[in-house]
Amino acid sequence: MALEIKWWLHLDDNWKKILSINHFYNFKLSAKEQKKWLVWGVNPFDNFRYKFHFEFDSILTTDEEITQLLKIKLFYASNTDLIDIKPLEYFSQLSLIDISFNSIEDISILRKLKKLIFFYAESNSINNIDVLSKLSSLIEITLRGNEISFPDSISCLKNIQYLDVAQNKIRSLDFISKLSKLKELRADANLLTDASMLENFKEIEYINLANNYITKLSSLSSLTQLKFIDISNNKLSGSQQIIDELIKKHVEVIQ
User: From residue 111, how far is each of 67, 88, 129 by CA, in Å?
Assistant: First the structure.
């Protein structure tokens, strides 16, 4: 375990602080339960079966301490002034990472986290997400508010159900063509001009394409599960019949 001990000793103060204020958690929740507290704001942290806590200036020295730390499953570090996530490469059991509202550019270390299911990285400085193509277990991704232009690496993630790529620089939705399990798509505030790709998504329930440059809607009659679509602040013309058909099917349409 000498290598891991050396790694701990070389953590910078910000990372030690993150450990000390319990951003790392090790408890057993199913994917459904994890999603529930994320979506509804339920806080399970008061009812942990086991929770790690390390003082700011403490040093892990025993094999047992290090072994247990490396088994953590959830990492929450939103708005903590992080500029890199390299130390996470040691935590191969992680199933959830939230690094939103930081200044992170490089997420390439994620390639080692094969058990990752939930990845939230809103409002960072990420422009390259090629590494995500290696993470086939991903179900939910949030990359809102980054610098992404070409999200093609997402196209092979066939288990994705929730995808938020709003407020980026994306010009095409072609990258979602194979995401047959997609239920929620948030792609508002990009540079999109075409939404025809959406007609193939029979499982999708929620679509937000507001604040783009879309000029026309293709038929969405095949989207039998659709409950909500926001197409406001686009450049639509000649699409009112399609919109009326959606409304008749009790789809909430924001236009």
Answer: 21, 11, 11
CATH class of 2-191: alpha beta
Q: Tell me which H or E stretch contains 64.
A: helix 63-69
- Residue 98 near residue 78 (C-beta atoms within 8 A): yes
Shortest CA distance to 4 belongs to which of 64, 51, 53, 58? 64
* Residue 190 contacts residue 170 (beta carbons within 8 Å): yes
Strand partners, 162: 140, 184
The three-class DSSP label of residue 44 is helix
174: closest CA among 158, 191, 152, 193? 152
List the structure tokens of 59. 């040093």
The tens digit of pLDDT for each residue in 146-182 reads 999 988 999 999 999 999 999 999 999 999 989 999 9
Report if pTM > 0.70.
Answer: yes
Q: Sheet of 184-186: strands edge to edge?
A: 24-25, 74-76, 96-98, 118-120, 140-142, 162-164, 184-186, 206-208, 228-230, 252-254
